[in-house]
Hints:
Layout: E1 8-12, E2 21-25, E3 28-32, H1 44-56, E4 60-61, E5 63-65, H2 71-74, H3 77-83, E6 85-86, E7 89-90, E8 107-110, E9 113-119, E10 133-137, E11 142-145, H4 151-160, E12 168-170, H5 182-188, E13 192-195, H6 208-216, E14 220-223, H7 224-227, E15 230-235, E16 238-243, H8 244-248, H9 251-254
Parallel strand pairs: 3-5, 4-6, 5-7, 11-12, 12-13, 13-14
Antiparallel strand pairs: 1-2, 1-15, 2-3, 8-9, 9-10, 10-11, 15-16
Helix pairs in contact: 4-5
Amino acid sequence: FNESKKNWQLVVFDVGQGLSILIQRENKAVLYDTGASYDTGFNMVSAVVLPYLQHVGIHQLDKVIISHSDNDHVGGLTQLQNSINIKELVYNTQNEGSSIPCLQGELHTWQGINIEILWPEKATYRENDDSCVLLLSDGKNKVLLTGDISKKVERKLVQQYPQLKADVLVVPHHGSKTSSSNLFISHVKPNYAIVSAGFLNRWHMPVLAVVKQYDEKDIQLFNTAISGQIIFDFSDNGITKLTYHDDLWPFWFANSF
């Protein structure tokens, strides 16, 4: 990468069936979702997120934004809070005072990047359709993070934001058949779409019909189950991407079989 001071990165972690995304500029970062934790004590924060932060020299998080309260999105939060300093938690939770709400119309400016909250209209708790939807923009490049919203919310976003476009779309609800309506994809018109899903997950996400939707529109679709972690690098010159499988896998792993 051209490590220009102006560049910023979107790191889509490979957390199996779940979601965790890092927005990084220089050594500052915002985390969207944490991936899951399991009864065994294994969690994606310790296994995936923290090692990466250590690797790139990030010692605190300016914001942690939680889309909604499903385990595969928030399961690692306690582990994260116990392991690293978090300046601000944005999360619609019933624990009063521990976080600031995610509400439509709020705008956070961070490191020269606008983080606009497009959804939900009010702070309710738990459901997929209450997911915190974010539009990131540096003035040139745009990224849309959608949590687990369904076609119903996609339709509302299209109505409420007639100009909504994004270069990179993180596909709603891991590529489930309840999301990724034709209307929504055609409206947002991304160049790249990323599904964060577990290898051979029992829901068969991303479902074939959804994959077809993106293919038919010539949108480059990535699935973390196949590509592993994906890093997008944004600059004035546009977007470059690396996948763990194609670009980041250490030579000795790739050639030892």
